[in-house]
Amino acid sequence: MQIAFIAHDRKKDEMVNFVIAYEHVFKHHKLYSTGTTGQRIMEQTGLNIHRFMSGPLGGDQQIGALVAENVLDLIIFLRDPLMAQPHEPDIIALLRLCDVQGIPVATNVATAELLTNSLGRGEFGWRELVHKYKPEDWQP
Predict the structure, then answer these.
(1) Per its UniProt record, what HAMAP family does this chain match (predicted)?
(2) pLDDT, tens digit (0-9, with 9 covering 90-100), for 46-101
(3) Per the residue annotation, which of 9, 13, 60, 90 is the catalytic one?
(4) How far apart are CA 45 and CA 49, in angstroms?
(5) What domains does the chain contain, in order, with CATH numbers?
(6) DSSP state of 4
Protein backbone atom coordinates (compact mmCIF):
# COMPACT_ATOMS: atom_id res chain seq x y z
CA MET A 1 0.00 0.00 0.00
CA GLN A 2 1.02 3.59 -0.58
CA ILE A 3 0.51 5.98 2.33
CA ALA A 4 0.99 9.74 2.70
CA PHE A 5 1.57 11.73 5.88
CA ILE A 6 0.76 15.42 6.24
CA ALA A 7 0.70 17.41 9.48
CA HIS A 8 0.16 21.05 10.24
CA ASP A 9 2.85 22.70 12.36
CA ARG A 10 1.12 22.28 15.72
CA LYS A 11 0.37 18.62 14.88
CA LYS A 12 3.86 17.52 13.79
CA ASP A 13 4.87 16.15 17.22
CA GLU A 14 1.60 14.23 17.37
CA MET A 15 2.27 12.79 13.90
CA VAL A 16 5.82 11.74 14.79
CA ASN A 17 4.61 10.02 17.97
CA PHE A 18 1.83 8.29 16.03
CA VAL A 19 4.20 6.99 13.36
CA ILE A 20 6.66 5.80 16.01
CA ALA A 21 3.83 3.84 17.67
CA TYR A 22 2.86 2.21 14.37
CA GLU A 23 6.25 1.95 12.72
CA HIS A 24 5.84 -1.84 12.70
CA VAL A 25 2.85 -1.40 10.36
CA PHE A 26 4.21 1.40 8.17
CA LYS A 27 7.58 -0.26 7.49
CA HIS A 28 5.87 -2.67 5.07
CA HIS A 29 4.49 0.07 2.83
CA LYS A 30 5.63 2.79 0.44
CA LEU A 31 5.50 6.12 2.25
CA TYR A 32 5.18 9.73 1.11
CA SER A 33 5.00 12.99 3.00
CA THR A 34 5.17 16.72 2.79
CA GLY A 35 8.67 18.06 3.44
CA THR A 36 9.05 18.93 7.11
CA THR A 37 6.68 16.25 8.35
CA GLY A 38 8.58 13.58 6.44
CA GLN A 39 11.93 14.86 7.66
CA ARG A 40 10.81 14.77 11.28
CA ILE A 41 9.39 11.26 10.92
CA MET A 42 12.60 9.97 9.30
CA GLU A 43 14.73 11.53 12.05
CA GLN A 44 12.78 9.62 14.71
CA THR A 45 12.19 6.30 12.93
CA GLY A 46 13.92 3.92 10.57
CA LEU A 47 11.37 4.59 7.85
CA ASN A 48 12.24 5.74 4.35
CA ILE A 49 9.82 8.38 3.10
CA HIS A 50 9.59 10.06 -0.29
CA ARG A 51 9.34 13.71 0.67
CA PHE A 52 7.59 16.35 -1.37
CA MET A 53 7.76 20.11 -0.83
CA SER A 54 6.38 21.72 2.30
CA GLY A 55 2.57 21.82 2.24
CA PRO A 56 2.20 25.58 1.80
CA LEU A 57 4.85 25.55 -0.94
CA GLY A 58 3.03 22.97 -3.05
CA GLY A 59 3.48 19.68 -1.19
CA ASP A 60 -0.27 19.30 -0.61
CA GLN A 61 -0.78 19.70 -4.36
CA GLN A 62 1.96 17.17 -5.14
CA ILE A 63 0.24 14.63 -2.93
CA GLY A 64 -3.05 15.67 -4.52
CA ALA A 65 -1.61 14.72 -7.91
CA LEU A 66 -1.01 11.19 -6.61
CA VAL A 67 -4.59 11.13 -5.32
CA ALA A 68 -5.93 12.29 -8.70
CA GLU A 69 -4.02 9.43 -10.36
CA ASN A 70 -5.43 7.02 -7.72
CA VAL A 71 -1.92 6.05 -6.62
CA LEU A 72 -2.32 6.52 -2.88
CA ASP A 73 -4.24 4.09 -0.69
CA LEU A 74 -4.38 6.06 2.56
CA ILE A 75 -3.64 9.58 3.76
CA ILE A 76 -3.05 10.54 7.36
CA PHE A 77 -3.44 14.30 7.49
CA LEU A 78 -3.33 15.69 11.02
CA ARG A 79 -4.98 19.07 10.57
CA ASP A 80 -5.01 21.90 13.05
CA PRO A 81 -8.68 22.92 13.09
CA LEU A 82 -8.02 25.88 15.39
CA MET A 83 -5.45 27.64 13.18
CA ALA A 84 -6.22 29.35 9.88
CA GLN A 85 -4.03 28.02 7.07
CA PRO A 86 -2.92 30.32 4.26
CA HIS A 87 -3.12 27.42 1.80
CA GLU A 88 -6.63 26.35 2.86
CA PRO A 89 -7.86 26.09 -0.78
CA ASP A 90 -5.13 23.48 -1.44
CA ILE A 91 -6.21 21.53 1.64
CA ILE A 92 -9.87 21.55 0.61
CA ALA A 93 -8.92 20.48 -2.92
CA LEU A 94 -6.89 17.56 -1.55
CA LEU A 95 -9.74 16.40 0.68
CA ARG A 96 -12.18 16.73 -2.23
CA LEU A 97 -9.93 14.59 -4.44
CA CYS A 98 -9.83 11.92 -1.72
CA ASP A 99 -13.62 11.87 -1.73
CA VAL A 100 -13.74 11.64 -5.53
CA GLN A 101 -11.24 8.77 -5.66
CA GLY A 102 -12.53 6.97 -2.56
CA ILE A 103 -9.21 7.22 -0.75
CA PRO A 104 -9.46 6.96 3.03
CA VAL A 105 -8.13 10.04 4.81
CA ALA A 106 -7.73 10.48 8.55
CA THR A 107 -7.68 14.04 9.85
CA ASN A 108 -7.21 13.18 13.52
CA VAL A 109 -5.34 10.56 15.55
CA ALA A 110 -8.49 8.62 16.48
CA THR A 111 -9.38 7.98 12.84
CA ALA A 112 -5.73 7.42 11.92
CA GLU A 113 -5.52 4.71 14.55
CA LEU A 114 -8.65 2.96 13.26
CA LEU A 115 -7.37 3.00 9.66
CA THR A 116 -3.83 1.97 10.64
CA ASN A 117 -5.10 -0.95 12.70
CA SER A 118 -7.24 -2.01 9.75
CA LEU A 119 -4.19 -1.75 7.49
CA GLY A 120 -2.17 -3.84 9.96
CA ARG A 121 -4.83 -6.57 9.89
CA GLY A 122 -4.68 -6.69 6.08
CA GLU A 123 -8.13 -5.21 5.58
CA PHE A 124 -7.13 -2.93 2.71
CA GLY A 125 -7.36 -5.65 0.04
CA TRP A 126 -10.12 -3.74 -1.69
CA ARG A 127 -7.53 -1.08 -2.63
CA GLU A 128 -5.54 -3.74 -4.48
CA LEU A 129 -8.60 -4.35 -6.63
CA VAL A 130 -8.81 -0.64 -7.40
CA HIS A 131 -5.22 -0.74 -8.66
CA LYS A 132 -5.81 -3.93 -10.64
CA TYR A 133 -9.03 -2.84 -12.33
CA LYS A 134 -9.03 0.76 -13.55
CA PRO A 135 -12.42 2.49 -14.08
CA GLU A 136 -11.83 2.63 -17.84
CA ASP A 137 -11.72 -1.21 -17.79
CA TRP A 138 -15.16 -1.54 -16.21
CA GLN A 139 -17.87 -2.63 -18.60
CA PRO A 140 -21.57 -1.93 -17.97
Answers:
(1) Methylglyoxal_synth (MF_00549)
(2) 999 999 998 888 888 999 999 999 899 999 999 988 887 777 888 899 999 999 88
(3) 60
(4) 10
(5) 2-72+85-133 (3.40.50.1380)
(6) E
